[in-house]
Write a structure and sequence with these properties.
heterodimer, A: mainly beta, Immunoglobulin-like, five-stranded mixed sheet, 5 helices, disordered N terminus, B: 404 residues, alpha+beta, 3 domains, four-stranded antiparallel sheet, flat
């Protein structure tokens, strides 16, 4: 039987896809990122475990002098950071990162801090405040407490963390969190998310073994974040990774406005941002398309050690 | 009557004292159970125990198309759980053939679907549930020879080339050796002693080095001693039997052929270790089995044939079948070693193999020494003997450079 040119043309796509299937089935049995979405993903935790760390409380209108109170309790806690891997963490309120603290500019923040851990700790807030509210010199011993009180300013995306020494140890053990101060003129409505980037050195060799967003490896790969295309997605992003100088976020299939520190209207239009330790900012995405879009550190190593996830964009 | 009752009484006394031997054991059991019940509070006086190390022992990493297999053992007292696996610092999906939670000294095989890159260096990491990562660097990823008939034959051929061939060639010196003057034969015997000493030292060093790499619970110089002592005494026993079979000689002294057989056994044990080393290094991608290396081993090992031929030259006549058997005994284990090394690669077996080789060589050195002392004109102190011994060491050292 002879095979004419037309016949071979017609059959070629099928052949190509067949070959590809065989190829995948044998030599490339890995399945790439396809194996890293949904139930197959080695991520710890259940479906809504990270909601409190992902979804910030609503912004309140500007009302100078209003008191905003929070209570933070530092405690030692063993947490599961990667599937089946535990880490002896130091936490604020039992989670790494700690709870989201949110205030509007000119609110009076009152943060009650209780040290229920086994080591001295503090809370050091980024922002503008009196020297004795800085969480550097007023070290809180175990079983002691301290109330931090200061007006919230300036507006932007900030962070808080323990400043007891040794500093590197106290931060990488998990004592940090996101601190949002809203501007007097409210930001436009958006689907708001908080993402704190971190790493865990589980074997104490001064190198991170795992990287995460909001504390659990591959969590948003297992449970993609569903967002709507019809409204802006606003991400409050902070980098609290220790040991590695920088971390980054790269969004697939779209661009975003990036406001460094979120304290001015100046932004950059990009799909990748790089953050030094302690650096943070605000991202605003207007998704053009629906579908599944990946986001991850553009350091491939971090990606494959846990720092990746997906947006499920719907209409 | 009287004497029998005395014997009875003594028997009863004996029994009592034999039973008494159980008392320390019973007391030990009692003390151990008391301590086990209250142990924690006793040790509590000393403070807190440090946490377990939680490191795995990675015993073997195998590569096949689209797959990596890691054999791990729990070397510590506490249980160890395989929680996360990475390849080149990337977390990968995996399955475990065996238990995921390993009790002491239990092993399991981690199976990773992975598109590895031929000839590239690669590292694998296994992380315990407490977050401790054990990593293993592989110099070059190459497909691990599987237990196919082809691989089986391949290792057999390598073992044949580096083991049997050179020994058989060395044995061809036998007719010439039969015609040399007695003092020169003694020199060649001493040369055998020298080369065996070299091999013994080499094997002992190798065994000690390998045991140091074993997990604490398995290793220790004592393991080497077990291997050395067992093979030394086994050969002593064998030497007695061979001597007794020699029959007519007084005090079951070893004859030339008996000694040649012992030397062959000793060298055979050495070649077992050598084959294992070649097989496992090749399987793990650490060794390029080039022509030069095989030739090197052949040159290195031809001296071993000479070592067997020298004592055999004492006998007026030796059948071809007997000589072939000697070559097989001395060289054949290289094939077995290559198989074990290539397909199993077990560090523990490696230590025992090399320790056994050292012990056997030591024993044969003693036999050769006795033989030379008895037969050599001028005894052990003759110039021929001293010169021969040193030449044996020098030859082994020089030809050893070929395989270094």
């Amino acid at each position: 039987m002879t095979v004419g040119p037309l016949c071979s043309l017609a059959s070629s796509p099928l052949l190509a896809s067949n070959r590809e299937a065989t190829h995948l089935g044998h030599e490339h049995a890995v399945g790439g990122h396809a194996a890293m979405i949904g139930d197959a993903v080695p991520a710890p935790g259940g479906p809504h475990d990270l909601d409190e760390l992902l979804l910030p409380p609503a912004a309140l209108p500007h009302e100078p002098g209003r008191v905003r109170e929070y209570t933070l309790v530092a405690s030692d806690k063993q947490i599961e950071v990667a599937k089946g891997v535990t880490f002896n963490a130091w936490t604020y309120n039992g989670t790494v990162p700690g709870p989201i603290i949110r205030a509007t500019e000119d609110d009076l923040l009152r943060v009650h801090f209780v040290n229920a851990g086994s080591h001295p700790h503090t809370i050091h807030f980024h922002g503008i405040h009196p020297a004795n509210m800085d969480g550097v010199f007023e070290v809180v011993e175990p079983d002691e407490s301290l109330t931090y009180e200061f007006p919230a300013r300036p507006y932007g995306m900030h962070l808080y963390h323990c400043h007891a020494t040794p500093l590197k140890k106290h931060i990488h053990k998990g004592l940090y969190g996101a601190f949002i101060i809203d501007p007097p003129k409210p930001r436009p409505p958006a689907q708001e998310l908080v993402m704190v980037l971190n790493g865990y050195d589980t074997d104490g060799d001064g190198d991170n073994n795992f990287y995460t967003v909001n504390g659990l490896t591959f969590y948003y790969a297992k449970y993609p974040i569903t967002v709507s295309r019809s409204q802006t997605v606003r991400i409050y992003l902070a980098n609290l990774t220790e040991f590695d100088f920088i971390n980054s976020l790269h969004l697939h299939g779209d661009f975003f406005r990036y406001y460094p520190t979120g304290s001015s209207d100046r932004f950059e239009y990009t799909d990748t941002v790089m953050l030094c330790q302690g650096e943070r900012g605000i991202l605003e995405i207007d998704f053009a398309n629906t579908g599944t879009f990946m986001f991850h550190a553009h350091q491939s190593e971090f990606t494959e050690l846990g720092w990746m996830g997906f947006f499920n964009v719907v209409d | 009557m009287e004497s029998s009752s005395a014997a009875e009484k003594r028997g009863a006394g004996d029994l009592r004292w034999r039973l008494w031997a159980l008392v320390p054991i019973l007391l030990l059991v009692g003390a151990v159970s008391v301590f086990a019940a209250a142990g924690d509070s006793v040790l509590g006086l000393l403070g807190r125990n440090p946490p377990p190390v939680d490191e795995f022992k990675i015993r073997r990493v195998e590569f096949s198309p689209g797959e990596i297999r890691i054999r791990v053992t729990n070397p510590q007292r506490d249980d160890l759980t395989i929680a996360s696996v990475s390849v080149d610092d990337a977390i990968v999906p995996f399955s475990v053939d065996g238990p995921q939670r390993l009790e002491r000294l239990r092993s399991a095989t981690i199976v990773i679907p992975f598109d590895w890159v031929e000839d590239d260096p690669i590292s694998v990491g296994v992380t315990s549930s407490t977050g401790i990562e054990t990593t293993e660097e592989i110099a070059a990823a190459v497909e691990t020879p599987s237990a196919s008939p082809k691989g089986f034959f391949g290792y057999a051929l390598v073992g044949f080339l580096v083991g049997i061939v050179p020994v058989a060639l060395g044995l061809l010196w036998l007719p010439s050796l039969r015609r040399v003057a007695p003092q020169w034969l003694a020199a060649f015997m001493a040369l055998t002693g020298g080369l065996l000493t070299f091999l013994a030292l080499e094997a002992l060093a190798e065994a000690l080095e390998r045991q140091a790499a074993l997990p604490g619970a398995l290793g220790g110089p004592g393991l080497v001693l077990i291997g050395v002592a067992t093979s030394y005494l086994a050969l002593t026993f064998l030497a007695q039997r061979l001597g007794a079979r020699g029959g007519a000689r007084r005090n079951s002294e070893l004859g030339g052929l008996g000694l040649a057989t012992l030397v062959a056994v000793g060298i055979g044990l050495h070649n077992l270790g050598e084959g294992l080393a070649i097989g496992s290094s090749f399987a793990l991608g650490e060794l390029t089995l080039g022509t030069f290396l095989v030739v090197g081993f052949m040159v290195h090992n031809i001296t071993e044939g000479l070592g067997i031929a020298a004592p055999a030259a004492e006998e007026k006549e030796t059948s071809i079948g007997r000589l072939a058997l000697l070559a097989l005994v001395a060289g054949g284990p290289a094939i077995v070693g290559a198989w074990v090394g290539g397909f199993l690669t077990d560090d523990f077996l490696g230590v025992l193999f090399f320790a056994a080789a050292a012990g056997a060589a030591f024993e044969v050195i003693v036999e050769v020494g006795r033989y030379v002392a008895r037969r050599a004109p001028g005894g052990l102190a003759s110039g021929y003997v001293i010169g021969g011994f040193l030449t044996g060491i020098a030859v082994m050292y020089a030809t050893g450079l070929l395989v270094a």
